[in-house]
Specification:
By secondary structure, the chain is an alpha/beta fold. Helix content is about 25%, strand content about 25%. The protein has a single domain, classed as Double Stranded RNA Binding Domain (2-Layer Sandwich). The strands form two sheets. A four-stranded mixed β-sheet has the order 2-4-5-6, with helices on one face. The protein has a three-stranded mixed β-sheet with strand order 3-1-7. A hairpin with a 3-residue loop joins strand 4 and strand 5. Helix 2 crosses helix 3. About 25% of the residues are buried.
Length: about 210
């Protein structure tokens, strides 16, 4: 005769096995980078373009909050400041997709910063791009697209600063906080240097916690 307690537990075990997987943990609070030192440019203004790159098949990035293009623009607003008296910088979102397949998620992010002279001619630029992906059951967990976008944005933030300091070092100014918390104007010819986390590129595949 079968154990009655075992028989009673079978429906509970079946329900547990077929239950919804645990959501991927998300960092608290909205996406933002204001806690980092600003990247001060020797230009009079910074234009952050609102145009988004065209979607591709399977792209769900526009459905997220913030959307993938807006996440890249948030990074630019939080990190870049203009401290010069002439010229302009233009920030462009070149790629921003979260592509969903049957058993995988891939996040593609890219941006470009152009420096223009007072006459409007381009005098320099920096580009950054990163890719992150998850596959299998990890790609189907609740919050997986949002978590993947957050992680890819952290990668892009590091890569963007690295490329900016490498390609546009002559337009980066060192700034220090004023007594009121604002930023002081840079000294002429002063170039800021800030240590970056080890490595400047992100792995292409990961397992979400």
């Amino acid at each position: 005769m079968p154990d009655r307690r075992g028989v009673l537990l079978l429906p509970l075990l079946a329900a547990a096995c077929g239950g919804r997987p645990e959501p991927v943990p998300l960092p608290p609070g909205p996406l933002g980078y204001k806690y980092l030192s600003p990247l001060a440019l020797n230009v009079a203004a910074i234009d952050i373009a609102e145009e988004a790159p065209p979607p591709v098949p399977g792209d769900i990035g526009a459905r997220l909050s913030p959307s993938a293009p807006e996440a890249v623009r948030i990074m630019a607003r939080d990190r870049l400041i203009a401290v010069g008296t002439t010229g302009q910088a233009r920030f462009i979102v070149s790629q921003a997709q979260v592509i969903q397949r049957a058993d995988a998620l891939t996040c593609l992010l890219g941006c470009r910063l152009e420096v223009l002279s007072g006459l409007g001619s381009r005098v320099g630029f920096a580009e950054a791009a990163v890719t992150r992906s998850v596959s299998g059951p990890e790609a189907k967990r609740p919050n997986a697209p949002e978590a993947l976008l957050r992680r890819a944005m952290d990668d892009l933030n590091v890569e963007f600063e690295f490329q900016l300091r490498r390609a546009l070092k002559d337009w980066i100014a060192a700034v220090a906080p004023n007594a009121d918390g604002g930023m002081a104007a840079p000294s002429p010819g002063q170039v800021g240097v800030e240590e970056l986390p080890p490595g400047n590129t992100a792995p292409s595949r990961e397992t979400l916690p």
